[in-house]
């Protein structure tokens, strides 16, 4: 089994617990992150290793478009469910490996964010 398979297995197993963890979904922390980044209203934002999408959805109200990308399906399913529940039309989630060539053109995003995950890649 390769390392990425182990990562997928582990984050599939803990997807629900991770998505509901107070540190991960802390609204005040998310608000501060968006405030510090201060993206322009017309910004396109990419969140790398989005997991359950809390960061991506925090940027949605202040940006034109947000894309969350993750290696594992289970947290992306949670993110998509929450996106629909919140009625966010300018956010989308997709599977992708950030250690490979991403399916985006150079310069396509104005902001790239990653929270709690850089140590994984």
Structural summary, described in words:
The structure is a single chain. By secondary structure, the protein is of the alpha/beta class. It has a single domain (3-120), classed as Vaccinia Virus protein VP39 (Rossmann fold, 3-Layer(aba) Sandwich). It is built from six helices and four strands, in the order ααααβαβαββ. It has helices at residues 3-13, 15-20, 22-25, 27-37, 54-59, 73-86; strands at 44-48, 65-70, 91-95, 111-113. Strands 3-2-1-4 form a four-stranded parallel sheet. The longest helix has 14 residues, at 73-86. It is globular, with a radius of gyration of 14 Å. The two termini are 17 Å apart. The model has no long low-confidence stretch (mean pLDDT 93).
What level of helicity do the residues show? 40-55%
The coarse overall form would be globular
Strand content of the residues, in percent?
Answer: 15-25%
Give the helix/strand class. alpha/beta
Average of pLDDT? 93
Q: How would you spell out the order of helices and strands?
A: HHHHEHEHEE
Q: Give the strand line-up of the largest sheet.
A: 3-2-1-4
For this structure, the CATH topology is Rossmann fold
The radius of gyration computed from the alpha-carbon positions, rounded to a whole number of angstroms, is: 14 Å
How many separate domains make up the residues?
1
The rounded distance between the terminal residues' Cα atoms is 17 Å
CATH superfamily: Vaccinia Virus protein VP39
Named CATH architecture: 3-Layer(aba) Sandwich
Query: Which spans have pLDDT < 50 for at least 5 consecutive residues?
Result: none
